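User: Need the bound-state model for flavin-adenine dinucleotide:
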Amino acid sequence: MNWTLTRDENFNFRAAHWADLHSLLYNGLPPNIFLWGHLYLSFCVSNDKSNVRLKAKILQTGEIIEIVGELLIAADGCLSSIRRNFLPELKLRYSGYCAWRGLLDFSDDGHLEAIMGLRRVYPDLGKCLYFCLGYGTHSVLYELLNNKINWICAMKVSSDMIKKMHEDAEKVWVPELARIMKETKEPFINVIYDCDPLEQIFWDNVVLVGDAAHPATPHGLRSTNMTILDAAVLGKCLEKWGVVLGFQQRTTRNRSTLGEFQSTRLPVTSKQVLHSRKMGRIKQGLVLPDRKAFDPKMATPEECHDLQQKNMPFFGQVPSIFQWTHASFDC
Ligand SMILES: Cc1cc2nc3c(=O)[nH]c(=O)nc-3n(C[C@H](O)[C@H](O)[C@H](O)COP(=O)(O)OP(=O)(O)OC[C@H]3O[C@@H](n4cnc5c(N)ncnc54)[C@H](O)[C@@H]3O)c2cc1C
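Assistant: Bound-state model below.
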C-alpha cells in the first residue's frame, strides 16, 4: 500500500545529470586550465607563505612534475588527501547504511513498458523528486533531461548484493520501481558517510572546498549545490580582496580572502551537513537522540512536514558577498 506523507508544491529545485553539469563547466572555462591524467602527490608552502609548490604525477608517462601557484584550492573530494595534511586524525563517520544508485537511459523503446508503469505509479515524474520511505530503508527517484531516470535506494549491505537488492526491492517497493532497478544495467553502491563539521577550512594559502571541506550524507540533496556555492563565494572573495588590497603582500591578501571565505561558508555548510545527517537517520528509520525512530504509519503531520527538503538550513539564501560591488570601495 502506498500513500503520500507530505508534498511540497513550491520546492524550487533543479536536477541535472553529472555529465551535463560537467560539460557546462568544462565549456565555460578556458581549456588550458585542465590537466587531465595528473595525480596530485604532495605540496609544500613557501616559508614566506606567498606560494605553494605542488608535486603531481603524469599517469601516462610516470613523470613527476612541479606546479607553483599562489593558492592551493583543494577540491579533491570527501577522502581529500590534502585535508589529511592538516587533519591527520579526522575520521569519516559511517552513516550505518549504503546506497544503491542507478541511471536508466530509456531513450530506446526497450524500456517503454517499465517507464509507462512507473509513470502510472509516480504521475508527477519529470516535475518533482519522489522520496519513498519503507521500513528501515528509503529511496529517491527523479527524471533527468534526455530520457533518464535516476534512482537511489538506501539499505544495509549484504553478501550477494545485486541479487539481494533486487529481491529486497521487489518486497519493499512497488513492482514498477523494482522493475526500473532491475532493468538498470550497472547499478552501483556508495557507502554513505559524512564527518562532523570542521572548525577551520584554510591554513595559510591552502583552502578546502566542496566535499573535501564538508563531507555530507546525500539526504539534503545539497552537496553539489554546496560545492558550487563554495566555488562561487571563493571567486567573489578573490575578486573583492584583489581589488581592495591591490598589489599589497600576497600573504595579507590571501589571509583576507580565505578568512572571508571561511566566515561566509563554514557556518552555512556546518548546519547543512548536520541537517543532512538528521534527515538520513529519520528516513532510514534510525533513532536520534531527541526523537524516536520515524514510523511512516504512525507519523504525525508535523513529523511529515519535517521531511520536506526546503527545511534545509539556508535553503534559497544568497550569500551576502554577492551584493558586493566594486562601487562599494570607490570611496
Ligand atoms: C550516494 C550519493 C548520492 C549523492 N546524491 C547527490 C545528489 O542527489 N545531489 C547532490 O547535490 N549531491 C549528491 N551527492 C554528492 C556529490 O556527488 C558531491 O557532493 C560532489 O560531487 C562534491 O564535489 P567535489 O568536487 O567536492 O568532489 P568530487 O566530485 O568527489 O571530486 C573530487 C575529484 O578529485 C579527484 N581527486 C581526488 N584525489 C586526487 C588526486 N590525488 N589527484 C588528482 N585528482 C584527485 C577525484 O578523482 C574527483 O574527480 C551524492 C553523493 C553520494 C555518495
